[in-house]
Amino acid sequence: MNAKPPMESADGRSVVVVGSGFGGLSTACYLADAGADVTVLEKNGQLGGRASRLYADGFRFDMGPSWYLMPDVFEDFFADFGRRPGQYYGLERLDPHYRIFFKDGDRVDLVPDLAQNRETFESYEPGAGEALDEYLEQAAYTYDVGMEHFVYEDRSRLRDFIDLDVLRYAHGLSLLGTMQDHVEDYFDHPKLQQIVQYSLVFLGGAPSNTPALYNLMSHVDFELGVYYPEEGMGGVVDGVVAMAEELGVEFYTDSPVAEIRGREGAFAVRTEDGREFFPDEVVSDADYAHTEQDLLVPEDRQYDADYWDSRTYAPSAFLLYLGVEGDVEPLAHHTLVLPTDWEDHFDTIFGDDPSWPEDPAYYLCVPSKTDDTVAPEDHSNLFALVPIAPGLEDGPTRREQFRDLLLDDIADHTGVDIRDRIVFEETFSVSEFGERYNSTQGTALGLAHTLRQTALFRPPHASTAVDGLYFTGSYTTPGIGVPMCLISGQLTAERMARER
After folding, report:
1. What residues does the Amine oxidase domain cover (predicted)?
2. Of 45, 99, 441, 487, which shows the fewest CB atoms inside 10 Å?
3. pLDDT tens digits for 110-145?
């Protein structure tokens, strides 16, 4: 789909990239390939940003992203450097893609076979099978046009949207309205609406505040497939890092940045241990608000604290990493547990009074169903993720209460009782997102994809206050998710080349 345009040579230019999430890794690869001398400074002891790993008692957990979606984006990314993902990691398509337990006792598998999925939809609502075909046809059109003309192109200014080409490409796209409105045009049954909207949690939004344009995620989900990469998402990080090193990128871990000063051609980047780097340009893949508010002096900031306080942040999460004795049937590799009415849970995240959910919707991942290297023999690797509002108090008492509620809920609604079989356990929540990733309000993802925080309404790739300072990652366009962050890295590098 995407062909990398020729990029102006960066020979002789030095660049420091702050942070090694997928946005930072991608930017580093494009810049190094163009000839720049690239150094990546990573705050933590592992590369990959939120896609880090936890090793304990023979278990290996992906601590962040765990769904490998949009394989075409990964193919395009590696192809830009004359390589293929298969040179760095293998892929296995999952069947089922995922399983849903509704809390009224109903259970649904979504599978690679579209005809079977069509029958599943028809079983809930007469005509829903045909409606699914129509919905996916629209989603595929949105995906093809959206990816080529809106995602892979950095339309960061209003004038970028006001031209005849954009109007021609946008014809037929659902640019206005919410996902809830869009989905209701196709399906009446609330469970079917949930099935085609669950992926919004990966965008950090809710059906009522996410643009209908993101119906494209159903094309990703139903037709492009769900995969498991060799050694999990950490294996993808290893692959991208290996390629970056082949391109000449130099990495420093355990190197939190304390200050960024200067301008193009005369930057000084200082780490907390006192080391200094003097690049021509700087790219931040760290939390955008943290970079502006904590690493820059006031006169170098584009936005003040009020701006960041007024943003809508994607959810944080309560994560429970569990090593379990025995199996966890009937959980699938990817499992969703959903209340039949999930509006109350979304209201606890985006409503006027954020709180911990009493009847949560949540995700369970069991990579040991697919990969026997992630757990000791006769044990299961399980992690639970509950989206919660950013900024919530998450002290030990609150965590213990919610942990017990969650384990009870899993037992009640999936039939899997692990309460007496847990041999390893660790939690990760709002506080850790803030401490480990300098994440504003402890958000797990960044800025939510609301109607007012999509496309040109997201913070820019190039600082408007400091020449030579750039940004990449989930706060920028195209937004949240591993594939989007890979593309963000390309857009940032292209912007740097144009300004160079």
Report:
1. 23-496
2. 45
3. 999 999 999 999 999 999 999 999 999 999 988 888
